[in-house]
Amino acid sequence: MTTDTATAPRVLPNAFTTGKLPKWMPWPILAVSLAVALGGFGLLAGATGDGFNWIAGIILGVVLFVVANWVIARLVEGARQAADRLITSLVTGAFVLALIPLVWLTITVVANGLPTFLNGTFLNSSMRNVVGEGGGALHAIVGTLIITGFAALISIPVGLMTAIYLVEYGTGRLARGITFFVDVMTGIPSIVAGLATYALFALLFGDGVRMGFAGSVALSILMIPVVVRSSEEILKLVPNELREASYALGVPKWRTILKVVLPTSIAGITTGVMLSISRVIGETAPLLIVAGFTASMNYNPFTERMMSLPVFVYTQYVSPGTDAEFYIQRAWAGALTLILIVALLNAIARLVSHFFSPKLGR
Fold first, then answer.
1. Of 12, 60, 246, 353, which is least packed with CB atoms within 10 Å of its CB?
2. CA–CA separation, 188 vs 191, rounded Å?
3. Contact 23, 85 (CB under 8 A)
4. Rounded to whole angstroms, how far apart are CA atoms 287 and 304?
5. Which of helix, strand or coil describes residue 302?
C-alpha cells in the first residue's frame, strides 16, 4: 500500500526548532532591553528624587540588547551566527549611541531658543541701546552672511583651481609639496588663523584694526584646504575615458576640463563647497580677534567692527547684564539661527547634487 504524499498536510517549520531565529526577533529584544533599562532608571529616579536620566537609560538599554541578542543567538543558532549577530548589534548600537548627542543637542537648542526666535523682534532688530529684554540678532545674521560670503569668494576659486592642478596637471615635487601643505593647513587651529590674519592686517592698517573682511580672510585660511581636498577627491572620480574621448576629438585639455570634467563633477564639488562653508560658519575665535563685536548694524566689511552669529552667542553668554535671563535666551536663539543656516546650506547642497547629477544630464 502506497502513501499519497500529495494529500499529506504541509508542516510549516518552526524557526526556533530549526536553529534559526526569525528576522523580526531583534526588535522585541531591543524593546524589552530598553523597557528594562528605562524602567530601572525610572525606579531609581523615583527612589532618590533625582531627575530621570533617559540618555543613560538608552545607553544601558543598547548594551543590554547587544548582550541579550548574542546570548539568545548563541543558544539557538550556534557560535558562528551568534558572532555575526554580535557584530551587527555592535554596529547598530554604535549608530544609536552616535545619534543620542545629535538628538539631545537638537532638542535642547530648539526648546530653549525657539520662544525667543519667534518673539517678533529677534530677526528684525539689532542690540543697539538694548540692555535687557528685547533686541535681536539682525546685525549678527547680516554680518555672518557677509563675512562667510566673502570667505567663499576667496576660497572657492583658489581651492577649486588648486584641486584641478593637483588632479589634471600636478606631477613631481611641486604637487607633492602642495598636497603636504594642504594637509598641514587642514589641521591648523582656528585661533592661529585668526592671529595670523590679525598680524597681516595690523602691518597693513595699524594696530587695533577690526573689520569684517579680515574675518573673511581668516575663515578662508580654514576653508581653502577643505575645498581642495573635497574637490580633489571628486575630480578623481571622473572616469578617464571621458577625458580620453574628448582628447580624441581634438579638444584641448583646458576645454576638456571646463566642458567635460567640471560638469560631470559639479554636484560633488558643490556638496564639498557647502560642507566647507558649514565648517567655517560657526567659528568664533578668529572672528572675535579680527572682526570684533558690536551692537550696531554694519553693512560694510571693509571698515569698522562687524558682528557674527558665533560671536553674538559668545558675547550674550559670557557678558550678561543685570537681567541675565534675556541674554541667555538670546544666546540660545542665536545658536538655533546658526543651526538653521547650516541646515539650509546642507539642504541646498542636497538639491544641487540631485538636480545636477550626471545621471540626470544628457
1. 12
2. 8
3. no
4. 13
5. coil
